[in-house]
């Protein structure tokens, strides 16, 4: 079993790592994560076996951490124009797949910094997305409810492009939910329980989705003191050595 967790920690990951590690991730994707040079973890906190980090600001970037035998290799197709949508080959000698770690927040393109970044990236990486064993996980900063605010490359457009590749949201398939009608929020604006939204996602290709055994979104009560986002945890049963 492989447990993948994505979580926007809202900064100061060095102080919050212990909390998320109680969830026992094998792979952890963290948005708003400080540069590794600043990650002075507490002595009792488990250290990652491998990691990658991307960002312009040493205080807030995207970090990808391995707490198992999985190793990371940045794809040679990585385009820095989409700095926070990062294609990575993940492998442990038995299992190998492509992970797109996502934080849709490119401050270098203020007029199209959110979901439009994902839309541009999935178009750019179309050939890579044609392959098997694909996961996209992270903070997409988007939902169908805001489609009208984006003339080009809105949330529905991204979902449609991925669907053409037979890549779908794990949460929506697992819980039989419609986009925009989610019953388990991932984000609370201003950390207010009265302002819930669903903006964090894990998409998986069909060959990996069929191996999903469990998905869980952290509760407001358990996580709001740490961040305005709650973590999404997905378990993949990859015991088949042919995966």
Q: What's the quaternary structure here?
A: single chain
User: If you average the pLDDT, what whole number results?
Assistant: 94
Fraction in beta strands: 25-35%
**Structural shape:** globular
Supply Rg: 17 Å
Helix residue percentage: 10-25%
Question: How are helices and strands ordered from N to C?
Answer: EHEEEEEEHHEHEHEEEHEHE
pLDDT below 50 for ≥5 consecutive residues: which ranges?
A: none
Q: In DSSP terms, counting alpha (H) and pi (I) runs of 4 or more, how many helices? A: 7
Distance between the termini: 12 Å
> Which structural class fits the helix and strand makeup?
alpha+beta
DSSP strand tally: 14
What does this structure look like?
The chain is α+β, with helices and mostly antiparallel strands. 19% of the residues lie in helices and 32% in strands. The protein is built from seven helices and 14 strands. The protein has helices spanning 13-21, 115-124, 126-129, 155-164, 170-174, 206-209, 220-223, and strands at 2-8, 27-33, 50-57, 60-66, 71-74, 85-91, 96-103, 134-139, 167-169, 187-188, 196-197, 200-205, 212-217, 232-236. It has a six-stranded mixed β-sheet with strand order 3-4-2-1-14-13. Helix 2 (115-124) packs parallel to helix 4 (155-164). It starts with a strand and ends in a 7-residue tail after the last strand. The mean pLDDT is 94.
């Amino acid at each position: 079993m492989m447990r993948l967790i994505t979580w926007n920690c809202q900064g100061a990951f060095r102080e919050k790592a212990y909390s998320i590690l109680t969830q026992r991730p094998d792979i952890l994707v963290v948005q708003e994560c400080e540069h590794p040079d600043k990650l002075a973890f507490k002595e009792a906190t488990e250290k990652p076996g491998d990691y990658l980090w991307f960002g312009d600001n040493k205080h807030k970037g995207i970090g990808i951490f391995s707490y198992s035998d999985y190793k990371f290799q940045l794809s040679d197709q990585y385009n820095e124009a989409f700095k926070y949508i990062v294609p990575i080959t993940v492998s442990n000698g038995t299992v190998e797949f492509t992970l797109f770690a996502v934080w849709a927040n490119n401050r270098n393109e203020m007029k199209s910094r959110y979901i439009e970044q994902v839309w541009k990236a999935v178009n750019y990486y179309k050939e890579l997305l044609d392959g098997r064993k694909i996961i996209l996980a992270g903070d997409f900063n988007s939902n169908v409810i805001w489609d009208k605010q984006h003339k080009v490359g809105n949330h529905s457009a991204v979902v449609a492009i991925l669907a053409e590749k037979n890549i779908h949201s794990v949460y929506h398939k697992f819980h039989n939910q419609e986009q925009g009608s989610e019953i388990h929020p991932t984000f609370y604006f201003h950390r207010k329980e009265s302002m819930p939204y669903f903006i964090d996602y894990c998409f998986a290709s069909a060959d990996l989705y069929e191996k999903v055994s469990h998905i869980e979104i952290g509760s407001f009560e358990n996580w709001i003191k740490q961040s305005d986002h709650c973590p999404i945890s997905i378990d993949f049963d990859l015991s088949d050595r042919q995966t």
